Amino acid sequence: MASAVGSAPAVAAPSVPVTLPLESLETALPIEAPELSTGVPVLVPGAPEAPRHVTGNLVPQGTLPAVPFSSELPATLLELPVENALGEGNLAVAQASSEASDMELAGPGASLGAPLTQPREDLYGLSAVTLPQAALMAPVVQGTPSAGLLLS
Known about the structure:
By secondary structure, the protein is mainly beta. It has helices spanning 2-7, 25-28, and strands spanning 15-20, 35-41, 44-45, 68-73, 76-83, 90-98, 101-106, 109-112, 134-137, 140-143, 147-151. Strands 1-2-5-6-11 form a five-stranded antiparallel β-sheet, with no helix packed on it. A four-stranded antiparallel β-sheet has the order 3-4-7-10, with no helix packed on it. Strand 5 and strand 6 form a beta hairpin.
């Protein structure tokens, strides 16, 4: 059973579609309700980079690796009827829309150094005490979202 589950391909949706019901605004405000459809992105984790040895350090660099994620920002459409100021019905429909775009994320990572140096010749093969070094890798967000406004 475990081999059947392990061999099944993982199917991940890039986003879950969502249509927001805004009809209740018509009872509170004297306007025609806008229509809004969008989605919720689904994060898909990737494989982190393995820690790598750097010459001169006892501890590998990237001790706590940054975990990459990928997702897709869903397409969003907001339609709002624009009423005629003279009271003769709707004049047009204003649309604000954004296209779906891929996003790449990476969580924060850390790299730690040992409090000892590598064995030194001048100390007859013994290590010297040094201040440990610590580094934090900042999280990364990459993507190319775009949006537009249209009055038709």
